[in-house]
């Protein structure tokens, strides 16, 4: 590892740890501060924290890798995500911020659901906590896989600790830094580091495609080179079936049910700050996704023109960083990739930990636990979930995009319809909420188990979020109609 790269990465690691210490001194005195930062996030921090915790290593590895292999048809995933994120900010964000505080200052999604539907409080809290922990273990593992691939590709000669490979060393080094600032500083540390990491990611995704395009010879040369390899590489529609299109844009449905994203809505300073946060977040997202598309497309042109072998397409960002930049800038770009990975891992660890703490430990084991005890137990559960995720990520052949897609679909189907309808439909019953939660998660798991995401009725597979979302929505609607209860929706005090 060169001196320039070492300096850049060391500075980045020290900055993350420093933010963790700052947050520990400022906002970890009670569970509301540790789990939601005291609900005092500014619009900018809330927006970039939601964006950075959303995109993960998928933005700099999974998406560019898919575009590198298949061309612009893969950009429909990004388009679907932009649409889904926008409606998430419009429909869910203001309502969730207001209602979670109104329902006895709920600190987690399971707690909010239990207070929104008191007739099924225990069932909702328990089942949703189980779903969160299961899918977040897989989701967190995808981030660790990205971290392992980074070190394996960029630093193959890294000193191996205890006989581990560079991939495994990368997993535990990435996880170690994340654990330090997450366990110490809680939600505020995660949100502030997300803000910094989001800025680094966007800057890297502006710099990288521009430099790659210039080095590849410009638009004309790049287009001719890619057309010579695959005449349809730059087509957004060639070979795109209806099922393929729906499976790609359906990624946008996942936004409504991602606990690590929507928890930022709960923590924003006030409902009045939501529009500003939405505008900042959407601008960041569009710029970053456009940059990721550019990395994959122009990266293909550059590697073809220079006869560069790319054994793993998901490492194209790392290969280009090493090929085209001086060590100090390469270190910054690799720090951007680590930022994408670490921002999501830290958010997911904290949300999973908060569910285990508030919806299991406090609910079943220690109802009268002190605030200090809850904070410390929260730190312990962060460590537990991290260990499980590291075990899942141990296989170096795991694909980042594959792991992310399954976890994204699981959350989107289980919680998406549940969150939307609980915030907007007063006729929804507690039994309907439980039915939707179980049906959505079960459908996704069954769909994957049967291989229907790979092949459906002899044709291409259907992304599991589509049947999961539809089944969950229908289950909520039908069961709520069949089990009418007194309106469980608590009106505003002024109403």
Automatic annotation (TrEMBL):
Subcellular location: Cell inner membrane; Cell membrane
Membrane topology: Multi-pass membrane protein
GO CC annotations, alphabetized: plasma membrane
Listed CDD domains: SLC5sbd_PutP (cd11475)
Biological process according to GO: proline transport
Residue ranges of the TM segments: 6-24, 75-93, 126-151, 171-192, 199-221, 233-256, 276-298, 318-341, 374-394, 400-423, 430-450, 462-482
PROSITE patterns associated with the record: NA_SOLUT_SYMP_3 (PS50283)
Keyword Transport: yes
Example of a GO MF term: L-proline transmembrane transporter activity
Keyword S-adenosyl-L-methionine belongs to the record: no
Catalytic activity reported: L-proline(in) + Na(+)(in) = L-proline(out) + Na(+)(out)
Keywords: Amino-acid transport, Cell inner membrane, Cell membrane, Ion transport, Membrane, Sodium, Sodium transport, Symport, Transmembrane, Transmembrane helix, Transport
Superkingdom of this protein's organism: Bacteria
Similarity comment: family membership: Belongs to the sodium:solute symporter (SSF) (TC 2.A.21) family.
Function: Catalyzes the sodium-dependent uptake of extracellular L-proline.
Protein's UniProt name: Sodium/proline symporter
């Amino acid at each position: 590892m060169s001196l320039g790269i070492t300096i850049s990465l060391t500075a980045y690691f020290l900055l993350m740890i420093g933010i963790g210490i700052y947050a520990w001194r400022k906002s970890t005195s009670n569970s509301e501060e540790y789990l939601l930062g005291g609900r005092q996030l500014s619009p900018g921090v809330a927006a970039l924290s939601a964006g950075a915790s959303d995109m993960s290593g998928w933005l700099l590895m999974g998406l560019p890798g898919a575009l590198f292999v298949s061309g612009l048809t893969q950009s429909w995933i990004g388009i679907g995500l932009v649409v889904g994120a926008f409606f998430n900010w419009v429909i869910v964000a203001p309502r969730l911020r207001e209602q979670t505080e109104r329902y006895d200052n709920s600190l987690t999604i399971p707690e909010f659901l239990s207070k929104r539907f008191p007739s099924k409080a225990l069932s909702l809290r328990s089942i949703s906590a189980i779903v969160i922990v299961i899918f977040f273990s897989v989701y967190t593992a995808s981030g660790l896989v990205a971290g392992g691939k980074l070190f394996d590709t960029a630093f193959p000669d890294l000193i191996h600790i205890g006989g581990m490979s560079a991939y495994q060393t990368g997993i535990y080094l990435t996880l170690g830094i994340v654990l330090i600032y997450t366990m110490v500083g809680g939600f505020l540390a995660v949100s502030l580091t997300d803000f910094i990491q989001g800025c680094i990611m966007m800057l890297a995704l502006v710099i990288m495609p521009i430099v790659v395009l210039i080095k590849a010879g410009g638009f004309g040369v790049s287009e001719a080179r890619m057309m010579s390899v695959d005449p349809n590489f730059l087509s957004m529609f060639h070979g795109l079936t209806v099922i393929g299109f729906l499976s790609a844009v359906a990624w946008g449905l996942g936004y409504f049910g991602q606990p690590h994203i929507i928890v930022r809505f709960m923590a924003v300073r006030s409902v009045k700050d939501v529009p500003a946060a939405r505008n900042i977040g959407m601008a960041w997202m569009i710029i970053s996704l456009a940059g990721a598309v550019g990395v994959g497309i122009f990266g293909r042109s550059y590697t073809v023109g220079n006869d560069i072998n790319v054994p793993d397409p998901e490492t194209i960002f790392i290969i280009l960083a090493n090929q085209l930049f001086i060590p100090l800038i390469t270190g910054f770009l690799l720090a951007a990739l680590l930022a994408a990975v670490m921002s999501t891992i830290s958010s997911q660890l904290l949300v999973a930990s908060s569910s285990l703490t508030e919806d299991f430990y406090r609910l079943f084991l220690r109802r009268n636990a002190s605030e200090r005890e809850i904070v410390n137990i929260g730190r312990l559960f962060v460590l537990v979930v991290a260990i499980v995720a590291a075990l899942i990520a141990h296989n170096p052949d795991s694909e980042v995009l594959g792991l992310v897609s399954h976890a994204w679909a699981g959350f989107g189907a289980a919680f998406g319809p549940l969150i939307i309808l609980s915030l907007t439909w007063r006729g929804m019953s507690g039994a309907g909420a439980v039915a939707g939660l179980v049906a959505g998660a079960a459908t996704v798991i069954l769909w994957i188990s049967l291989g229907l995401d790979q092949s459906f009725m002899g044709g291409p597979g259907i992304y599991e979020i589509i049947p999961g979302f539809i089944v969950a929505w229908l289950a909520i609607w039908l069961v709520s109609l069949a089990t009418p209860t007194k309106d469980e929706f608590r009106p505003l005090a002024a109403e």
